[in-house]
What we know:
Chain A has 100 residues and is an alpha+beta fold.
Amino acid sequence: MGVEVVIERIEIKNRLGVVKYITDNEKYAHITVDTTICEHCPHYFCTYSCPAQCFKIMGGKLVFIYEDCIECGTCAIACDQGAVTWHNPRGPFGVIYKEG
Amino acid sequence: MYSADFDVIVVGGGPAGVSAAIPLAKSGMNVLLVDRAEQKGTKSVSGGVLWGNDLEKIILDWNKEAPIERKIIAKRIGMLTETDQFTMDYRTKQWENMNVGYSVLRVKFDSWLLKKAEESGVFVINGSPIEKLAWNNGRVTGIIESGEVTTANSVIVADGANSRIVLNEKFGGVNIKGKTEYPIENMALGIKEVYKLDEKTINDRFNITYPYGVASEYLLGFLKNGVMGGGFLYTNKESISLGVVINLPSLKKGKLYSYDIIEDYKTHPFIAPLIEGGSLVEYSAHLIPEGGPTGVPKLAGNGYLVVGDAASLCYSNGVVIQGMNYAIRSGMVAAETLINAKKNNWVDKSFQEYIYRLKENHLLEDIEMLSHVDRFSWNERLHHTYPYLITDILNNFIGEHGNPKKHIRTIVKEARKKQGISNLTLMRDMLSWGWRL
Ligand SMILES: Cc1cc2nc3c(=O)[nH]c(=O)nc-3n(C[C@H](O)[C@H](O)[C@H](O)COP(=O)(O)OP(=O)(O)OC[C@H]3O[C@@H](n4cnc5c(N)ncnc54)[C@H](O)[C@@H]3O)c2cc1C
Ligand code: SF4
Ligand code: SF4
């Protein structure tokens, strides 16, 4: 079940690989980011704080991926520019923890 | 008088919500509990050591039946620098016969709690996220899901640290660029990993035998750029829960990646051997209220009460995290309040009694203490200077370096100078530390 033997750092991508999700249709993505606001962001704190690396700067632009979200709520408070709109995923969707 | 669908609707089935729902149902009330997780407990994250024995008042002999991982009989608190560790280890035979703390894994634990709630007569609905309450004439009259209202004489808000109800109903939070949100000063970010290891390896490594376990918490002095954080490590029956609690304002300034910090901790030379050979089975994250009194939202109003993490009734200072026990206690206090409110025909003012009852139970007092936390725990010096100061002193005092022996006073003085700490600052910090413990 486990992915790798520890002591080594595990890439965030591989850590997220052990997490189970049921992903909702993009139309119902629980978090939306108005990336036009991000163009003027003074800090990009979402990229540092999101524990699932859902916020990344690619080609000078902020890119948000909702599929890897583990629903911690940090991005909503990390963004003080009003770009993030946060909701809970609909009923059966989103992260499904096994341990907690 | 209109007739509501339920006496009470509880939103959120964590320790706070369940501890409110069970006594209410047992008192004969008609209780609905709704939780966003489709499968019970699968959205919950904690460290998690459940401290104390508060559950006993709700579920008799809970600790004989609940899916507990291990009973905590040893606690380690310490500091880590890149190369050094300084820890205080406390272990006692007495805790074997006491109910000091239990390590739990929340998916199993919460699903058991919810099963107990159902057995007590609580009507549990899963897979329903609730983000808004229904109002009529300045009074909460129920909950709204997909535009549909379910009515109740009272609602208990127990949806945890990231309570969207508290924000949407403006019970708490601040307005930032047109959105109501929690200030980053009031929340810490908790990130956790669970490593599977066999029972015997855990017993050997921690010098314990099942069903006993160890809880360890460290200040992470080695974090770069002034970022402040604590690390925890708890033994489960056949796994280890390890994680970090990160202070967000310092993360913003220091620009480290949160998901790297937990790996820095995990691969620390004194932590890695404890989980060596284990395999990663879970990665999770959750917010932790740590704002002290300034983070506490409006706790009660006409028709509603707010409990647990949603009410910011959580005690966290980066090293010590206690939330589940406060969640349980506030849930129980909410239940007492509503049992009385029903007797008084749900009059508006009976909801305010919740606040008096919280005070009576010392819950608000404990949170009040947190206002002093900024003075010390999330204090730059504690996190980044003292770990070096203390390990430097010990290294020189205990170690043999082939130099002439120095008096401990001289050693302390030299270490203090190296870290740029004045005598007065040291004294003040020691006093406030003593006061905190
Ligand atoms: C990494 C970490 C380590 C911790 N370590 C410890 C520890 O060792 N000891 C300790 O005592 N405390 C610890 N805490 C704190 C502790 O987990 C919380 O204080 C405690 O879980 C609060 O209980 P609660 O019932 O108020 O909220 P939660 O446990 O968060 O439960 C909230 C419930 O509400 C549901 N919910 C959420 N939103 C909605 C919605 N919109 N609609 C319907 N349902 C919803 C969720 O599914 C969940 O079941 C830790 C926290 C973290 C994150
Ligand atoms: S913090 Fe907000 S505005 Fe800045 S990049 Fe992130 S989402 Fe965009
Ligand atoms: S909720 Fe947490 S995991 Fe999800 S995108 Fe926001 S910060 Fe990342």
